[in-house]
Amino acid sequence: MFKINHEEAKGGFELIAKGDYEVTVHNYEMKKATTGNNQVVVDYEIRSDVNQPHQGQKILFDNFTVTDKAMWRFQAISKAAQFPDGMDFNSYKEWADTLVGKHLVVTVGHRVANNGKTYPEVTGFKESAAGAPQGSGPITVSEDDVPF
After folding, report:
1. Is 104 helix (H, G, I), strand (E, B) or coil?
2. What tens digit of pLDDT does each residue of 118-145 get?
3. Which residues is 41 bridged to in the sheet?
4. pTM of the full predicted structure?
5. Contact criterion met (CB below 8 Å) for 54 and 75
6. What is the three-class DSSP state of 43?
Protein backbone atom coordinates (compact mmCIF):
# COMPACT_ATOMS: atom_id res chain seq x y z
CA MET A 1 0.00 0.00 0.00
CA PHE A 2 1.69 3.19 1.18
CA LYS A 3 3.45 4.62 4.21
CA ILE A 4 2.64 7.94 5.90
CA ASN A 5 5.46 10.45 5.54
CA HIS A 6 4.86 13.85 7.16
CA GLU A 7 7.69 15.41 5.13
CA GLU A 8 5.62 14.96 1.97
CA ALA A 9 2.71 16.87 3.51
CA LYS A 10 4.57 20.19 3.23
CA GLY A 11 3.92 20.61 -0.50
CA GLY A 12 0.20 21.38 -0.17
CA PHE A 13 -1.63 24.35 -1.61
CA GLU A 14 -0.72 27.78 -0.36
CA LEU A 15 -2.67 31.04 -0.33
CA ILE A 16 -2.98 32.31 -3.90
CA ALA A 17 -0.90 35.47 -4.18
CA LYS A 18 -2.47 38.75 -5.26
CA GLY A 19 -2.32 39.29 -9.01
CA ASP A 20 -3.82 38.33 -12.36
CA TYR A 21 -4.40 34.67 -13.27
CA GLU A 22 -5.58 32.88 -16.39
CA VAL A 23 -8.49 30.74 -15.24
CA THR A 24 -11.25 28.50 -16.50
CA VAL A 25 -14.72 28.83 -15.01
CA HIS A 26 -14.94 25.45 -13.28
CA ASN A 27 -18.53 25.29 -12.00
CA TYR A 28 -21.28 27.22 -10.24
CA GLU A 29 -24.07 26.83 -7.74
CA MET A 30 -27.39 28.67 -7.57
CA LYS A 31 -28.07 29.87 -3.99
CA LYS A 32 -29.90 32.41 -1.88
CA ALA A 33 -27.83 35.12 -0.23
CA THR A 34 -28.41 35.85 3.46
CA THR A 35 -30.36 38.90 2.24
CA GLY A 36 -32.76 36.59 0.38
CA ASN A 37 -31.52 37.66 -3.06
CA ASN A 38 -30.68 35.06 -5.67
CA GLN A 39 -26.99 34.38 -6.09
CA VAL A 40 -24.74 32.57 -8.54
CA VAL A 41 -21.62 31.28 -6.78
CA VAL A 42 -18.81 30.69 -9.30
CA ASP A 43 -15.62 28.64 -8.87
CA TYR A 44 -12.52 28.98 -11.06
CA GLU A 45 -9.49 26.82 -11.72
CA ILE A 46 -6.11 28.42 -12.40
CA ARG A 47 -5.07 27.07 -15.77
CA SER A 48 -2.27 24.51 -15.85
CA ASP A 49 -1.66 25.00 -19.59
CA VAL A 50 -0.43 28.57 -18.97
CA ASN A 51 2.93 29.23 -17.30
CA GLN A 52 1.86 30.93 -14.05
CA PRO A 53 2.00 30.33 -10.29
CA HIS A 54 -0.64 28.27 -8.48
CA GLN A 55 -1.49 26.11 -11.51
CA GLY A 56 -4.42 23.81 -10.84
CA GLN A 57 -5.56 25.57 -7.67
CA LYS A 58 -9.19 26.56 -7.30
CA ILE A 59 -10.55 29.99 -6.48
CA LEU A 60 -13.85 29.28 -4.78
CA PHE A 61 -17.02 31.09 -3.80
CA ASP A 62 -17.07 34.14 -6.08
CA ASN A 63 -20.57 35.43 -5.34
CA PHE A 64 -22.66 37.13 -8.02
CA THR A 65 -25.69 38.49 -6.17
CA VAL A 66 -28.69 39.35 -8.34
CA THR A 67 -29.34 43.01 -7.52
CA ASP A 68 -29.34 46.16 -9.66
CA LYS A 69 -26.35 47.45 -7.70
CA ALA A 70 -24.27 44.30 -8.42
CA MET A 71 -25.14 43.84 -12.12
CA TRP A 72 -21.80 45.42 -13.07
CA ARG A 73 -20.07 42.17 -11.95
CA PHE A 74 -22.28 40.07 -14.25
CA GLN A 75 -21.47 42.47 -17.09
CA ALA A 76 -17.73 42.57 -16.34
CA ILE A 77 -17.25 38.79 -16.28
CA SER A 78 -19.48 38.37 -19.34
CA LYS A 79 -17.33 40.84 -21.28
CA ALA A 80 -14.12 39.09 -20.10
CA ALA A 81 -15.61 35.72 -21.15
CA GLN A 82 -16.23 37.33 -24.56
CA PHE A 83 -20.01 36.97 -24.59
CA PRO A 84 -21.28 38.99 -27.59
CA ASP A 85 -22.68 42.44 -26.78
CA GLY A 86 -26.46 42.21 -26.67
CA MET A 87 -26.55 38.46 -25.93
CA ASP A 88 -29.81 37.54 -24.16
CA PHE A 89 -30.36 34.98 -21.40
CA ASN A 90 -33.70 33.69 -20.15
CA SER A 91 -32.36 33.04 -16.64
CA TYR A 92 -29.28 33.42 -14.47
CA LYS A 93 -28.91 29.63 -14.62
CA GLU A 94 -28.72 29.80 -18.42
CA TRP A 95 -26.09 32.54 -18.08
CA ALA A 96 -24.08 30.41 -15.62
CA ASP A 97 -24.37 27.31 -17.84
CA THR A 98 -22.90 29.36 -20.70
CA LEU A 99 -20.12 30.70 -18.47
CA VAL A 100 -18.81 27.26 -17.40
CA GLY A 101 -15.70 26.30 -19.36
CA LYS A 102 -14.93 29.86 -20.47
CA HIS A 103 -11.35 31.13 -20.20
CA LEU A 104 -10.58 34.58 -18.77
CA VAL A 105 -8.25 36.45 -16.46
CA VAL A 106 -9.27 37.21 -12.89
CA THR A 107 -7.58 39.70 -10.62
CA VAL A 108 -7.12 38.19 -7.16
CA GLY A 109 -6.95 40.16 -3.96
CA HIS A 110 -7.22 38.97 -0.35
CA ARG A 111 -9.98 39.21 2.22
CA VAL A 112 -9.84 38.34 5.89
CA ALA A 113 -12.88 36.36 7.05
CA ASN A 114 -14.56 36.55 10.45
CA ASN A 115 -12.55 33.48 11.50
CA GLY A 116 -9.31 35.47 11.00
CA LYS A 117 -8.19 33.41 7.98
CA THR A 118 -7.17 35.04 4.72
CA TYR A 119 -8.79 33.90 1.48
CA PRO A 120 -8.33 34.82 -2.20
CA GLU A 121 -11.03 37.13 -3.54
CA VAL A 122 -11.75 37.95 -7.18
CA THR A 123 -11.71 41.72 -7.59
CA GLY A 124 -11.70 42.10 -11.38
CA PHE A 125 -12.00 40.44 -14.78
CA LYS A 126 -10.15 40.73 -18.11
CA GLU A 127 -10.18 38.86 -21.40
CA SER A 128 -7.78 35.93 -21.62
CA ALA A 129 -4.44 36.76 -23.19
CA ALA A 130 -3.74 33.05 -23.70
CA GLY A 131 -7.01 32.10 -25.40
CA ALA A 132 -8.43 28.62 -25.32
CA PRO A 133 -6.09 25.67 -24.71
CA GLN A 134 -4.60 24.31 -27.89
CA GLY A 135 -5.79 20.82 -28.68
CA SER A 136 -4.42 18.33 -31.15
CA GLY A 137 -7.21 19.11 -33.60
CA PRO A 138 -10.60 17.59 -34.18
CA ILE A 139 -11.23 14.01 -33.14
CA THR A 140 -12.63 11.75 -35.84
CA VAL A 141 -14.67 8.73 -34.80
CA SER A 142 -15.65 6.15 -37.39
CA GLU A 143 -18.30 3.42 -37.22
CA ASP A 144 -15.50 0.92 -36.53
CA ASP A 145 -14.56 2.79 -33.33
CA VAL A 146 -18.03 2.49 -31.80
CA PRO A 147 -18.80 -0.74 -29.90
CA PHE A 148 -22.53 -0.79 -30.76
Report:
1. strand
2. 999 999 999 999 977 776 456 666 676 6
3. 29, 63
4. 0.82
5. no
6. strand
